[in-house]
Structure prediction request, 225 residues.
Amino acid sequence: MKWLRARLSFGYGGWRGLGKAAVLALGLSAAPSWADEVVIAALGDSLTQGYGLPVDEGFVPQLEAWLQARGHEVRLINAGVSGDTTAGGLARIGWTLTDDVQALIVALGGNDLLRGLPPEAARANLAGILDAAAEAGVEVLLIGMEAPLNYGPDYKAAFDAIYPELAAEHGTLFVESFLAPVVTAPDVQAMMQADGIHPNAEGVALIVGAIAIEVEALIARVQQP
Prediction:
């Protein structure tokens, strides 16, 4: 199990029968009324893009369905690119932040880990993304990635510290780990695709259920008078 959890964190690029229907059911349990469409871009890699999943079962469509079931007028833009690193995210942040985008979810770093890239480079790239969002007046939710011990404890400590420190410095909302809901599920393998790296639709539903409240907080920031 420890090996599998390390693989999920490193190799990256429970509740059975959940998926989109369960996400909708969770959202419908208490649906307040919200006004005005909020446009959110989700900047990430294969986890954001929905690698290996039908179009409507990836992270972005499941999250959008959850929010809409809660009564939010919201539109999510899938800015996930499979295989992307933090450097790739920084390179395309300019055209991701179009005039209609009001909020940004940043979930990058897994492929930096896969390649063993320097933590200081990942930090600089993510800081550049957050700076661009601030300049555009866009609210941000930063989602962290946790390094395995494959590169040693010093690398792990340096990498893991990037996300909470940048969130504090830039005043962004923060979720500690994208994959934590899947990695800590009672039956991890039941939440994964056959590659053992990417979550299946049920795993994505767990992830959405864990972070959606913070996305609601992100929407609230946008809608503040």
Q: What stands out?
A: Residues 201-223 form the longest helix (23 residues). Residues 106 and 154 are 24 Å apart (CA to CA). DSSP finds eleven helices and five strands in the chain. The first strand starts at residue 38 and ends at 44.
